[in-house]
Amino acid sequence: HQEPCTASEASYCMNGGKCFKIPSMSTPNCVCNYNYAGSRCDHFQLESASDNSHQTGMIVAIAILVLLILLLLIVIIYHMC
C-alpha cells in the first residue's frame, strides 16, 4: 500500500520521477522514468550493450534452428528422389 507524497515532498524525486510513500517508512520513495535510477532518480544510465546480448543470442539461436530445418528438408528431399 502506498500513499502520495505531501506537497513539500513532491520535489523529492528528480528527472520526472514519481514520488510516493509507504506508510511504514518515514522517507519518500521514487518510481523513476526510463534511463534514470537511484533512490531519487538522480543517476542517468544509458542502455548498455549487455542489455542487448539476450536479444542477440535469441536471434542467433533462431537463425541456427532455421538452418538446421532447411538442412533436414534438403536431406529428406534428396533421399526421396
UniProtKB/TrEMBL annotation:
SUPFAM superfamilies documented for this protein: EGF/Laminin
Superkingdom of origin organism: Eukaryota
UniProtKB keywords: Disulfide bond, EGF-like domain, Membrane, Transmembrane, Transmembrane helix
GO molecular function terms noted in the UniProt entry: epidermal growth factor receptor binding; growth factor activity
Residue ranges constituting the EGF-like domain according to the UniProt record: 1-42
InterPro entries per the UniProt record, alphabetical: EGF
Disulphides: 13-30, 32-41
Transmembrane domains' residue ranges: 58-78
GO cellular component: extracellular space
Protein's GO biological process: epidermal growth factor receptor signaling pathway; positive regulation of cell population proliferation; positive regulation of mitotic nuclear division
UniProt protein name: Pro-neuregulin-4, membrane-bound isoform
Organism whose genome encodes this protein: Clarias magur (Asian catfish)
Gene: nrg4
